[in-house]
Amino acid sequence: WRDFYRGIRTATIFIANVDKVNNELPDAQKRQYKAEARALRAMFYFYLTRIYGPVVLLGDEVIPVDAPASVINLPRNSMDECVEFIISELDLAAADLPIRSNDQNIARLTKGVALAFKARTLLQAASPLYNGNTDYAALKNKDGKQLINQTYSAAKWERAANAYKEFIDQF
User: Which 3 state secondary structure label does DSSP give 140?
Assistant: First the structure.
């Protein structure tokens, strides 16, 4: 849990500050680095939701290290909100990531990685675990917000299939 949120925080700080450093770095490279950080942040959230279900989404806000507990103790977002955030981050990242990496940067993130994580996220959201699972009816925040949607939706399966088709067509 802690290491994923450390990665999320580091990626968020990088995205917020990369434009303020090293003016010699070309804009295209800055865009790619930001896209890589955005994709990594989405991947960390994907793994968190895969392990723990709905989690707290921090977005682009950088919470100060010395913030009081009232600022840090945030309620969990619903699973649908988590999925939408991950998908939006991966879509933004995929737009600025290269289709293939060159020989010097063989291990860098590519558009294919972002699209594959997008498809996997949508498949997880469509699964019976999170798509109308009434066994999780009691899983609510203190304010009563339902964290797992209790209504089955066939559209989630269609959306996952379309994401996999998009991935296959790209490569």
Answer: strand
Write the CB contacts of 113 (distance below 8 Å, at least 6 apart in sequence): 39, 97
In angstroms, the CA 73 to CA 69 distance is 6
pLDDT at res. 23: 74
Q: Find tokens 């299939």 and name the residue.
A: 161
pLDDT band for position 103 (cuts 50, 70, 90): low
AA identity, residue 129: L
Place of tokens 């203190």: 142
Q: Tell me which residue of 51, 49, 15 sits closest to 33, measured CA to CA.
A: 15
**96-129 residues labelled b (16+ CB within 10 A) or e (exposed):** bbeeeeeeeeeeebbbbbbbbbbbbbbbbbbeee
**pLDDT digits 0-9 by tens, 41-64:** 999 999 999 999 999 999 888 888
Q: Where are the alpha helices (DSSP H) in 57-101?
A: 69-72, 79-96
Contact 74, 56 (CB under 8 A): yes
Residue with tokens 């797992």: 148
* Token couple for 80: 């649908």
